């Protein structure tokens, strides 16, 4: 089934079911008012949502026309956003840009940071840029949402805790990041609010493209109307979501509604498939052409992030955002 | 006024008002069901809570007897936990222990990390320790809770956004921390769930001990029944909460219910006032006696964190936790 949250529901949105073809939606308010409520009681709630989804897909329920601008991120605010960095080619390129070393054990020990989750941008919200020199960049990622995960869970056990899958634009401020990371406490100012796709889906919606831990489909980023990258999210990742979740839960449980991100999707053959963020392309330019040609995002720049199934249908709807200058 | 959340209310607790003398409490359910709901609508809700608090303190409402074990952390789960490190003497000592440098600009540029907030421990919950070698440590801190803070707020403006104040035990795994921080993305596994005091208070409850940005009272940590430290939380801090909030909000807004922590309270004369975590004492032992004598916490060890007003009355109730072995 496919789910989303309407902005009209306020801070937590109003939970809706979206038809498989992204054509229509229906409110789930008789079952659960919000996405978080559904996740808090997933075992009880999910079958009732599935039943309504079946009615919507079978046109027993008419629903209303789907319009991405009505949607907030599936969890408009969340209790946890744990973002990984599972694609080594991305790590190698962006660390080169910062003059930072790849951690010694990068291929064996997952990298994960605690992200801000108090208020996510809606998928069609503008990205507010307070200072043109901050080095604004998009990062196209896959993210999953878990139910309650006990501390010490194994990767194998973690698979069963993945309840929903969605896309993410993990917005980064590259020029704020370098000095911030040098202080040793991770990201804070350099990671303003992320945005997620209008729709999140249960794993079964992905069919054979989902193996229990990763999505094997291209993630398409379009920058200012031109395709920028389409790396396959199931290729060249060092850790899948089951491993990232097990890592996150080593010393503590993860509560229902925890979002775990893959990190910027990147393939080793980035020269042919392109990239999922500007910083990667900038480093490829530096390596191949001796100079950086691509600028970071400025007011007016537009990013679209989407994923299509084998028949060419958009699975999650598009994240489609434009940069808006604020202050300064 | 003084507020708390009852465990009986489930994942978000049930909002209660606690009498000024911590003698009785009354449920606020006719006004707001949960602490988060109150914070989401603070301007409307706070005056109504204040009115009920007045009735409770005036014994017009009887209430029920206060019992800390009924209480969860004031926000049992939160959308944001941003923890600072505002006391340079703490930073200097613990970085020495990790063999890490103090950031060049530490006295001018606040240090803040994004903490996990999906499920806090209750103030009297056991601290689960999965591996005795993780190096479990307590950290006694002050924390504040904000309403909605706009991006780009100044420190002066930030003062008005501090709605509640409480105590925190920011639990740390020292031996997990060193390799984790070396990876460059901050804390994750090394910071399991924190616990907060049973009661949080509005700034006016602190009288002259609150200057709009810091609490000038000793924070008392008692380890296994013996006083361990009583540094003054208003002394030797490089940044007060107004500055930490302005730092946190430089590139993004902070949503209502954001918790901001001071970092481990520490004074420059730590040899006379003691410390608020084991790691500091360990480093002082190393400096003064050439060897570390204090071990990290093990199963059975007990920590109590509390703050008293000028008349000796506990302001927030006590965080009182015991370590419990789990797994291994």
UniProtKB/TrEMBL annotation, chains A, B:
GO terms for molecular function: hydrolase activity. The keyword Hydrolase applies. Residues 81-324 form the Fumarylacetoacetase-like C-terminal domain. The keyword Aminoacyl-tRNA synthetase does not apply. Keywords: Hydrolase. Gene3D superfamilies: Fumarylacetoacetase-like, C-terminal domain. Residues 1-77 form the Fumarylacetoacetase N-terminal domain. It comes from the Bacteria. This is Fumarylacetoacetate hydrolase family protein.
